[in-house]
Amino acid sequence: MKISTPSSQPRYTPLEHIATAERLGYDRARLFATPHEPDVWMMLALAAERTTTISPGPGVLVPSLRPPMVNASTTAALAALAPGRVVDLKVLLAQGIGRTRAT
Fold first, then answer.
1. What gap in Å lies between CA 1 and CA 65, rounded to an integer?
2. What's the maximum distance between 2 C-alpha atoms anywhere in the chain?
């Protein structure tokens, strides 16, 4: 008898998801910046190297993780890695204050 738990199932990486999305014909792939996952810009750079048509880019950038100029320069670097594919990229910055009370 065998038993499986969620942790024993294979975990797909963002790179595998992006490659699958490209094969399925998706136009763009967005990853989210979080301190609990691999670096978003590193993953996007790897995705740019491993794909040919999909547009890689950040979905959400957390301002406290990187200064805006660093995000700007890494966006330019990503555009250089994926010429013509980092288009229509809108980067929106938002800042939360934690808990808020509904009134």
1. 46
2. 55
**Taking a C-beta distance cutoff of 8 angstroms, is the pair 54, 23 a contact?**
no
pTM of the model: 0.73
Per-residue pLDDT reduced to its tens digit, 58-82? 887 877 788 888 888 998 999 999 9
Extract the tokens encoding 34.
């979080």
Contact 45, 18 (CB under 8 A): no
First to last CA, the chain: 55
CA dihedral 6, 7, 12, 13 (to 10 degrees): 140
Instruction: Please name the residue ranges forming H helices in the chain.
Output: 14-23, 40-50, 68-81
